[in-house]
Amino acid sequence: MDTAISIDIGGTNTKIALVDASGAILARERLHTRASQSAESYFEAIFERIERVCRPFPGRQLLGIGIGAPACNEYDGTIERSANLLFEDRVPIRQIFADRYQLPAHLVKDANAAALGEKLFGGGRQMDDFILLTLGTGLGGGIILNGRLVSGASGLASEMGHMRVTGAEERQCGCGRRGCLETFVSATGIIRTVFALLAEETVDSRLRHLSYAEVTARHISEAARAGDPIARLAYERTGAVLGAKMADLVAAIEPEAIFLSGGLAQAGDLLLQPARKHLDKNLLHLMRGKVNILPSQLGADDAALLGAASLALFNQKEKIL
Amino acid sequence: MDTAISIDIGGTNTKIALVDASGAILARERLHTRASQSAESYFEAIFERIERVCRPFPGRQLLGIGIGAPACNEYDGTIERSANLLFEDRVPIRQIFADRYQLPAHLVKDANAAALGEKLFGGGRQMDDFILLTLGTGLGGGIILNGRLVSGASGLASEMGHMRVTGAEERQCGCGRRGCLETFVSATGIIRTVFALLAEETVDSRLRHLSYAEVTARHISEAARAGDPIARLAYERTGAVLGAKMADLVAAIEPEAIFLSGGLAQAGDLLLQPARKHLDKNLLHLMRGKVNILPSQLGADDAALLGAASLALFNQKEKIL
Fold first, then answer.
1. Mean pLDDT across A172-201
2. Is A157 close to B253, i.e. CB distance below 8 A?
3. Which H or E element spans position A272?
4. pLDDT value of residue A317
């Protein structure tokens, strides 16, 4: 069966996989994105993982390479600059991989890749209009409208993480500004919310015994499931910010659903219930009850890998990109 | 040449025109939307105007009827409910006109019609991705992405007037909620802003001599052009709210341009300059300078008429709707 190499570059981890045309992941590897000292040594580490995932499948027909990366330029194949990566301006990443393997290479924003994965293999298969949000280190997103990916006039669309939350505390963002949505709604954002709540409230919490440096989103979800009041309040507040902000976007583009993916979304109903409540509360009356917030139907680890692979497996640029 | 009847239903005026396939308006009429006592007498008044615009052109080939209306359902051809009209729920307006004239009738949201007009005959002819905002009694809008109109999953998209402005005074909106963008950015909104400023500031202004009931957006633009400080401040504040809110939408969909149409947009640079400044200030760094705010290239009276007519003149539903 046809296969493709897929690379999903995230702020924390970089994932490398060999994917076939049915959407099955045949082999996978990962590495820490920030472990490398330079772009060169980072790419060398990826090349090594690619050879490792391909080695067990010597007979495979390799059609190409799909790369999902944050804040990249899909039109010219470069990473322009990124709040969460340490690349300098305009690394020609698509060309680097095409040259190395003498195969067609495709570059797509990581969250757009996840949206394509959701459209081709996940919960969006029957939908022409949806938003996918990836809640990881930051908040990424991909938008499908009229059945096609929205890339924007110069490939910079889907920066929903940098929509602004006003009227609340204006948290410093990695982009150099303050008040961006991802400072509240992301794995990092909910940690910040926990620390704000520990300051505001006096109620006891197991989270009072962890430092900012050691606490993770997983500590918060485990605490919330055990009934910890600060953790529960943190999900409630995160869902409220998410729901209210998505209501603005729904007013403009009215998707059928908003899918949530990524580490923070694994909290499930802890996040979904307040997000749904506050989305509905902030919608125009005639839109209420018409837009659902749903968990991604792809594994959090897999959506972007599958979407990026689909660019190499199918002629997606013609069809939906 | 082929012609179509076009009807543009607005909160204040209803316009009726005969339009040909080159985008020329051959004849036009108008009536006050709220002058009629019932939906029936309102439709009778429109029928009469239609006969009046057609009478001088007995030889014309009439292809159909295009109707632009606020808050209508494009998919089932009804007006569901409207903040600015007095219809009851679900008037089957498309069927009413199709039955009356035995011609194909098309219904599109008024601001979507204006966006189609801008795409086919105006400043968006060379663009695949843009937003059009109509700043009249309320704030409407239409969005073209990937060259196609964004209608939304159930035809309710483009309610940009009901995106929420938080962190400011939360003004009551015709939709029953508070804080909607159109309570600031519309012909009505700038009047409200003038009255807020007359309360806040002590500087002299000719606008201190007009009652709320008598002041119009034209009084404000004339005062601003004459250097009136309250009027100038009102445009500055209106542009600031518009620019900041559009930055959110630009982050998500990255259009090439935002066109402004309608009565308030006729103020030109009075509104455009602060809007551009505050849009840019609120954009992510890598998007700055990439999105322009431009005046519609169609007459404020004509954009929606031309766009609605285009639905009847061309097979637009297949191509871009």
1. 96
2. yes
3. helix A269-282
4. 46
Asked if A251 lies within 8 A of B159 by C-beta distance, the reply is yes
* CA distance to partner chain B, nearest, from residue A251 (Å): 5
Structure tokens at B21: 């396939």
pTM attached to this predicted model: 0.87
Q: For the residues B171-178, what does the mean pLDDT come to?
A: 94
> For the segment B41-90, what is each residue's pLDDT rounded down to a tens digit?
899 999 999 999 999 998 889 999 999 988 788 888 998 666 556 666 68
Two tokens, residue A69:
């990366």
Give me the residue from A80, A146, A162 closest to B150, CB to CB. A146
- Ranking A89-93, A106-110, B59-63, B121-125 by mean pLDDT, the lowest is A89-93
Helices (H), B122-228: 187-200, 217-225
β-pairing verdict for A13-20 and A25-32:
antiparallel
Alpha-carbon distance of A270 to A252, in angstroms, equals: 27
List the one residue out of B128, B275, B70 whose CA is nearest residue A150: B128
Among the partner-chain residues A157, A166, A248, the one whose CB lies closest to the CB of B254 is A157
* Closest by Cβ to B157, choosing from A244, A247, A254: A254
B70 CB contacts (<8 Å, ≥6 apart)? B9, B10, B11, B82, B83, B84, B85, B109, B110, B111, B138, B140
Selected residue of A126, A143, A159 to mutate for chain B interface (largest B Cβ count, 10 A)? A159
Please choose, from the candidates A152, A67, A149, the residue with its C-alpha nearest in 3D space to the C-alpha of residue A101.
A67
A264, two tokens: 């923070």
Tell me: ipTM over 0.90.
Answer: no
| Chain A CB contacts of B175 below 8 Å | 284-285
CA distance B262 to B172: 22
